[in-house]
């Protein structure tokens, strides 16, 4: 027991130091010459995969195993609920006992594991980032502060602004995506358009449902991340976000709902909210599934348009990593390569699910063949493909989720007039100091 606790404490300490990230850099420049290795032969009989999503389990069972029916080893997929995932993953990685060979990581905490010693260098098992067609931002997310590639993903999750065409036509005089984009092409224009919609609708139509809808966009627009060279940083965009929040809330330009609540979802099928900031998966799993009004049976499907909005951003995503010390290197390499680089599989997956891929070669091959009825025939895939090339993920750190949770509390308090900005900022910085005492301030 004491040995296990010691290992866990060591693991936690390493993550707390390394996950806070470093200066913003071009990882392609940081890498330099990389020696591409060959995975060692398998020493076990079972490849163990951990995931927080059933999606990966389905990909493996319905595609990988069917395409590889004669594997000389078993593939065991363990699905752990996301709210329990890190708590269960951390101790087994620290101890090395009952640990997965391959494990999935989501955007909210991928850097925590990438910047730890428990994820393997994928170049050592044959991945050459200079000779694959994966989007640069997707590779950057899974590259550690030393320029070592530690993960790979099949998908890209650029974000967009989805708006109601009928409301745009009624209050802005146009529903055309290019013309609506011009009205929200930066944050100042976004606010002006919000005011216009509110005034012309007598306050009945809000620009967005929740203040939380904006945060991903502002975070992505920053020049610097929360932590640079172990120093805590508040980028000017954070102050701008606070002021935008105050203006939107004080002028009643949001529906004052919280994300993922019943009220927030209800406006997707109503007529009281102009638009939503959502990424690729938001189209299929949020908007489409909530478009029909439960009381009237009327659907807003076909009445939506999709544009970039004020700034490029991404939201979410799943990366696959191999555990350092795995005895199933060859099997792990084969699985990760198949799911994230195999063009035949990726094309099938995209056509089957509509998932936007990280592989630019396949995306360019298929992107012009999409027409989305939910968006009145708009080609969402081609639009997302263009948006993905503009995403910059170089400022991400392993501390982002925890710091942003602390910030959201103060953003809400200031936006609703419960605190003044200086007090809210002081409380925010104080809470970060308590949780991350090893940072410089």
TrEMBL record:
Domain of life: Bacteria
Transmembrane residue ranges: none
Annotated signal sequence range: 1-19
Full protein name: Carbohydrate ABC transporter substrate-binding protein
Lineage: Bacteria, Bacillati, Bacillota, Clostridia, Lachnospirales
InterPro entries: Bact_solute-bd_prot1, SBP
Originating organism: Petrocella atlantisensis
Keyword field: Cell membrane, Lipoprotein, Membrane, Palmitate, Signal
PANTHER family membership: ARABINOSE-BINDING PROTEIN-RELATED, POLYGALACTURONAN_RHAMNOGALACTURONAN-BINDING PROTEIN YTCQ
């Amino acid at each position: 027991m004491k040995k296990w606790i010691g290992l866990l404490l060591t693991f936690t300490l390493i993550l707390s130091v390394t996950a806070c990230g470093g200066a913003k850099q071009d990882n392609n420049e940081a890498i330099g010459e990389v020696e591409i290795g060959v995975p060692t032969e398998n020493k076990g009989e079972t490849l163990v995969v951990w995931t927080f999503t059933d999606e990966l389990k389905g990909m493996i069972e319905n595609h990988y195993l069917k395409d590889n029916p004669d594997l000389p080893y078993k593939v065991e997929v363990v699905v752990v609920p996301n709210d329990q995932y890190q708590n269960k993953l951390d101790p087994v990685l620290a101890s090395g006992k009952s640990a997965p060979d391959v494990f999935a990581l989501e955007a909210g905490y991928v850097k925590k594991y990438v910047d730890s010693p428990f994820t393997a260098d994928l170049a050592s098992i044959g991945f050459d980032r200079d000779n694959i067609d994966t989007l640069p931002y997707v590779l950057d997310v899974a590259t550690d502060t030393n320029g070592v590639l530690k993960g790979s993903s099949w998908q890209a999750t650029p974000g967009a602004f989805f708006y109601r065409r009928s409301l745009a036509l009624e209050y802005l005089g146009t529903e055309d995506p290019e013309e609506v984009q011009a009205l929200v092409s930066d944050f100042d224009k976004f606010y002006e358009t919000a005011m216009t919609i509110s005034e012309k609708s007598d306050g009945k139509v809000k620009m967005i449902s929740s203040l939380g809808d904006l945060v991903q966009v502002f975070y992505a627009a920053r020049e610097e991340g929360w932590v640079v060279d172990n120093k805590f940083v508040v980028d000017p965009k954070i102050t701008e976000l606070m002021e935008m929040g105050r203006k939107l809330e004080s002028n009643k330009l949001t529906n004052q709902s919280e994300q993922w609540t019943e009220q927030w979802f209800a406006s997707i099928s109503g007529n009281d909210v102009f638009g939503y900031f959502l990424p690729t998966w938001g189209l299929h799993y949020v908007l489409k599934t909530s478009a029909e009004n439960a009381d009237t049976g009327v659907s807003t499907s076909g009445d939506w348009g999709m544009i970039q909005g004020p700034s490029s951003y991404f939201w979410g995503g799943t990366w696959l990593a191999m555990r350092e010390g795995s005895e199933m290197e060859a099997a792990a390499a084969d699985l990760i390569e198949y799911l994230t680089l195999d063009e035949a599989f990726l094309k099938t997956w995209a056509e089957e699910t509509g998932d936007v891929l990280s592989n630019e070669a396949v995306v360019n091959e298929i992107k012009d063949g999409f027409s989305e009825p939910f968006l009145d025939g708009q080609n969402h895939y081609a639009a997302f493909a263009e948006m993905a090339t503009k995403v910059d993920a170089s400022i991400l750190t392993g501390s982002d989720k925890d710091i942003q949770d602390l910030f959201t509390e103060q953003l809400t308090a200031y936006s609703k007039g419960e605190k003044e900005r200086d007090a809210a900022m002081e409380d925010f910085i104080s809470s970060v100091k308590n949780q991350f005492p090893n940072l410089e301030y």
